[in-house]
Amino acid sequence: MKWADVNGAALRYDVSGAGPPLVLLHEMGGTLESWNDVVPLLPGRRVLRMDLRGAGLSQKIWGTADIDDFVRDLGALIDLAELPGPVAMAGVAVGAAIGLRFAARNPSRVAAFVAMAPATGLPPDRVAATLELADRFEREGVRSRILERIDHSFPACYRTDSARFAAFVGRACANDPRSYAAIHRMLAGMNLDDDLPRIACPTLVLAGATDQTRPAAVVRKVAEQIPGTVFREIASGHVMPMLTPELVAHEINQFLDGDKISSLPPAKLV
Question: What pTM was estimated for this model as a whole?
Answer without folding.
Answer: 0.94
